[in-house]
Amino acid sequence: MKKYIQMKIYRNTIRIFACIVLGALISTSCTNLMNPEADDALTPNKVYRNLDDAHTTLRGVYGKLMDCAPQYLVLNELRADLMDVTANADQDLRELSWHAQISEGNQWANPIKFFSLINSCNDAAVNFIKMNDENKLNREDFNLLYSEVIAVRTWAYLQVSLHFSNTEKGGVPYFTTPLDNIETIKLSAIENTPYLSLEVMVDTLLNTMLNLPYTGRITDESLATTISTFNSSYMYIDKTYLTGELYLWKGDYYMAASQFKNIMERSTTEDINNPYDRYKIPFDASATLSASSSRYNSGYSRYYENDRFSIRNNWPFMFIDIETGNYFNEWLWVMYYDQLNEPSPFIDLFAKQGGQYLLQPSKTAIENWNSQVQRNSFKGDFRGYFYKPDGYTWRDSDGNEYTVLDYVNAFGLPGSYDIDNGDPVIMKHIYDYSNYNQNYDILDKSGRWFLWRAASLHLRYCEAANRDGQHRVAYALLNNGIRANYPGSDPDAAANDYTHRHQTELPFPYDFDARSTSSGDIPPGLRQPWFRNTGLRNRVSLTSHTIENDSLAEIEQHILDESALELAFEGQRWGDLVRMSIRNGNNSILADKVAEKLNKAGMDGNTVRNKLNDKNNWFLPLE
Amino acid sequence: MKYLQILITTLLLVALGIPAKAQQDLETATSVTGVVYNASTKKPIEAASVNCSDFSSGFTSADGSFSITVRTSSDVLTISAEGFHTQNVAVKGQTEIKVYLQYDNMYSLHEKTYNAFDHKEKMFTTQSIATVNPSKHTSASKMNIGSAEAGFDGRIAGLDARSRNGIKGMGSNLFLRGYSSLYLNNQPLIIVDGMIFDYNNYGNSLIGGYYANALAGINVLDIENVTVVRDAASIYGAKASNGVIFIRTSHSTKQATSIELTVNGNLEIAPEPLPMLGSEDYRTYLNELMVQKYGLDVVSKMDFLNTDNTTDQYYTYHNNNNWHQKVYENNYSTNYNIKIKGGDDIALYALSVGFMQQNGTVKESGNSRFNFRFNSDINFSTKVTLNSNISFNYMKKDIGGAGANIYYDPVYISRIKAPFLLEYEQDENGTVSPVLSNYDFLNLSNPVALINNMTQEDISYRLFGSFNFNWKISDKITASSLIGLSFDKDRQRIFVPQLGVVPDSVEYGEITNQLKTRVIRHFAVNNDTRIKYSNNFGSNHRLDVLAGARLNINDLEEDWAADYNSANDQIQSLGSGNYLLRQKGGFIGQWSSLSYYLSADYAFQQKYLLTLNMSLDGSSRYGDKVKGLKLFDTPFIFYPSLAAAWLVSSENFMTNINAIDVLKLRASYGLTGNDDIGNYTAHKYYSSETFLGYQGTVLGAIWNPELGPEKTTKFNIGLDMAILKERITISADVYSNNTTNLFDFLPTTSYSGFEGYYGNYGSLTTKGFDISMNNRIVNSTSFKWDLGLVYSKFTTTITELYNNSRYTSFFGANILTEVDSPIGQFYGYKTAGVYASSEQAEQAGLLNHMNNEQLLPFAAGDVIFVDHNPDGIIDEKDMQVIGNPTPDFMGEVYTRMTLKNITLDASLAFSYGAEVFNYMRYSLENMNTTNNQTQAVINRWRYQGQETEIPRAVYGDPMGNSRFSDRWIEDGSYARLKNITLSYYIPFNTNFIKHAELYATGVNLFTFTRYKGLDPEFSIDGTALMQGIDLGMVPQNKMVLLGIKLGL
After folding, report:
1. Record: contact A8-B693, CB cut-off 8 A
2. In A, which residues are within 8 Å of B688 by CB distance?
3. Residue B676 and residue B708: Cα distance in Å, rounded?
4. Which phi and psi angles does B813 have, rounded to 5°?
5. Does B481 contact A39 at a Cβ distance shorter than 8 Å?
6. What is the pLDDT of residues A430-479, one digit of tens each?
């Protein structure tokens, strides 16, 4: 400190003499003095100088992305049918849930955080181009970084377009340069910006994605590194997934399926199981009680399938595990909040202990789960909240009896929500901040924001495949897996001839091979990538659907319903409803769902139904 | 370049425009005779010097008469004598002149006014200038206030020094002629010995209610002169929009050594307790609220209602405690100061060393200061001289409690804590143990535990010093350069114990004890280099030109850390708390400004006076596209001002109007600015954004390169007058200050991702009047009686504002800012009593707009809110202006009576017409919590038909009876006897002691007010919108002081 002051005095003294003494009018020292280098804020000449700066900018962009998390969930879930407000919620949240008139100052209905992200992306993109032109970034680094920020911006624009629209201009303004000074925020400048409707926006965004110079994931070691014990590579956006999603919105199903299939086939060689497990929705190969090898299958102990007390609910572990093998095979995109840097914003929204408990599952969501039928014909769904026996007696193989009070260890976990003193509490994003976390600490408000995973990937793929005429493929992945649905039907083949069995025998992107043979089979000792695929419903021990008439319509309905069961509260719902409604030209798909939620909550859903039957009312007003 | 052209042209005009006629003096020379008298005794003065510029000089003879040759019949004589004010007398064609000299301890227009490096007699100033010489004009006892403004507070019309609160050393917020800004600093620039004295309260104090008051570092006894420029001091450009105060510390003028020792001690008298509810009234009240909160079943089993004295807890809840006495006490302060002056013909020096120990009325609170000052004037040669001013001060404050609304503030807690509880544990027999009791069942801390074990300490020091070199190039030209630095550090340490203190919930969990530290460091380098040219062109013309450049470089850094939950209260070092709760922060700021300035005074026959001031002012804070002259890649803004004065009394036609000694008319017009816009606000910058363990960078704000200073145009007309041989002097001014380019946060499109940006938009006008008057009512040899008055009034009106109207909330108050309205008005509900009965409530039929959008009818016992917007619903639309915190007028009356060696000084400050939001009363009478309330709530509505002004008590106050309304607005008018001093001067003729002065002073002994708060004088901070909100901080206390001043 002392040295620093001395240095300062010395430097300043020199400057003063250079600057002032008897009227030296022009001197560089004076210029420096009058334009001080800020130590507190970065002046433009201190950013975008080299690759490190560019990486820092990218981290800034992702920091902004994380700021959008609570609003992302609230907009996508609370406006749809699966999430509802609690008595603690304020007027602002209620307005969203009830599709009521938005009052001034409702921050949940203000897109500013998304535009802040977009603005940061634009600033980064514009400057990355400049850096590349000035040889401060080489082509390879540029391609990677530029593509990354444009992809994030694309994601943000899709979100904004889903929820907002300027009534007069009929859409969302599409800025590709930053709004960073008073000239750029002038009304005239903004009015000259094109406003894009959702459909046009999807086209524009898709074109942007297709023109990116790099479509892979970030593998650069300085970015995709371990930060505070978290593998940050899963925090970066998956451009292939986003492109697939945009194809799906656009209605180009073959291309959509292709993108998703490419992700399904990703695997690493570091683990022998990896090719069979990664993004494949695998079955529980060990069939033990161990959660760690369960591959997030939920069901009952072997040979006790009809015993209510032999539940092993491992599906929710995907929200608790951190960086296990299972975890990486499920998750595509997860954001980490840790106590020391930025606590999880979800605790406030969802938690009863330590939070404000503002949001809860809707009755619709709860009834969806409760009405499911399991393979043992029990009713209910492990992904909701199955049930909680009040302590019971467990008898081990030697006949010793134990009274089990802590059902958690015996049965696994509650599901997407828990019951706390009679109140349903949404758990997905706050498992880390609950008793189900072994390291739970009331002070430690770490947490995660879960975005994309294998299940959402499969549901998207099914949606595309079904629309592309591949109903059986879609049915198989949705229900009980490839193997069960492609038994093979060559009557001349020998019993142990699997040449044409357990596989779709279709061209890409519908090619699935689920064969697994033993040494005596033909061909022998085969383990094909999809042999463990178990299907989304089968993974949680639910019965498969039966298709009665129109495969296309029925399976699409099943996909929409399954998405509600599997992905509830993960921020997918509003988009699903909007996409299905637009595709079918039937606004009541969305309107009915929302109306049903409100009616079940004792509100006037019918008025809202009428309102939402007009597509223009799906969008929140944009200035 | 336009500005440069104007500048150069003006310079040339001033320099060349002066008629070159000069050497005619001898032709018109005439002789003047006269007599010089002592105005008090009417006796002639012998050996007074009589000069006519540098043309001729002489002395009076024993009968006071003189004869002197003057250049023209419109010349001016300068008459001076030891112990008297020097007088300038216009000959006005007379050949015989009588001159009456006044003692120099009297207010006079012949006094010197000082600016940064120069002085001028007040008679010849063109601007609105007031001056005070603390050693002559105020009593020595003021040193015990402990902050420099005590030396001039109440003596300068237009300057309102509002005490922040009564915490020792906390000082005052200074407002000179009202407000010039909505959101920026409104305090005048202070120049101490030629250098900018930065007294901004930088950073964020960790101690609630604490204000870093740098002025407390200046000992009042060291101040020789204070001169205030109230109108446009344009040579200070963008730092002068609130006027300039020049403080000159004492220098030695004589070579003889003089030593002055001042010692005093005072009794600090604790304030009167508030009329809070006693034990039984409170128990009734508490029961009422608890039943509402928890239901009768639960509450009836609670210990505080237990009347069976055989049970364990009975005695714990049956005491009659006076918490006020546990927190406040009478205390003693002492003050020592020694001043040594002297020197030889090479060097003169003035050394001052002081130590002050103030103990506050809050137990364990205090303020101690060590101050050191060494000023010297050195003649290296006849041409080269040096003035050095070095000062150092060290202050340590213990804030025992501030009265701020914080759960660990003992003063605040002592007001609201249940009076039936004790600060010590009691056993089942009622025996009191020495163990401090823990926080109580109502979640309130133990104030005594806080007083005993909490630390809130602030240690600061400042080194403020400069060297000013002067090189006399010729008789007419002097070049000077001042180089100086100001270095200060302010360190806070806070420890809030666990014992007896209620734990607090923060975002990350529960905190038990707290350990916090903050350091803020400010380093400023100043340089002021200038050339002065002075010349008389014959007897008619005089020109003084000062041109220079002023550089100010600043470096500011704050670092703070907070740690919580250390193992026990003995471990108080940072780093020993829970790492999850640990917090830290800080900032670094740098800014510089450079001004080229020119000040030219031209006088014709010393009766037509013209002053041109201007500066080209550049700052690192300005945006690149601010309009101005570009130098060093920065815009330099031109601030001109022009002032003119006419000494009417020097005109020949005034010769026969003997009653008027001096009459001067003045007018000035000029531009100043305010550059308190933030260091990087106008620059494009990136800020950091957390991404897990990394910090990323993102755009920091919308860049507004046009962001520049606020600009204030000041127009002033005034007069200075002395009549009846200067028995009465009057200075009066009317002014109009117009600020444009207000610094404001302007909302913008959300497409930018930002809420808004900082820009210059809006304007406000302050119009006002100030007058100061000094009368010597009795002027006999043995008895003298002076009576003085300063009086000022102003109104500040918003004239332009983005979106025309807005309100801002602080402490529950809404402050309205609206075009064509006065600044800072309170905006809330009007009330008309309380519904006495259900019928009355039903009849009124008003509905309350609840927080959850419901409409509920008001019931009996609710406050009758006025349905201003008559729709039957009480909601925001019914808010209206309910008060204006700006006083109608304010000032001070002061008097001094001297009978031989006995002097009585007194000053009475007054302020009339301010309306005050009594937040403290609001928090003690809102009846929506279980906190103890004032005795006013005894009259709360309790039964049908009860006529009362106090509504019913409802836990949580769902109907908003305590909302911001005229119930909490009070008349803040007051008159306060700030100071009364009786002193006795004893001359000694010994070698050891030359003289002694004994004095006794009472400070703030009487306050006449209807205001119900603790103290009608308070000020949260120096911004315009926060005035008139009384948080109920520790009030200024009464003081009785005894002291002695010895001349050795």
Report:
1. no
2. 42, 60
3. 10
4. -90, 145
5. no
6. 998 988 888 888 878 889 999 999 999 999 999 999 999 999 999 999 99
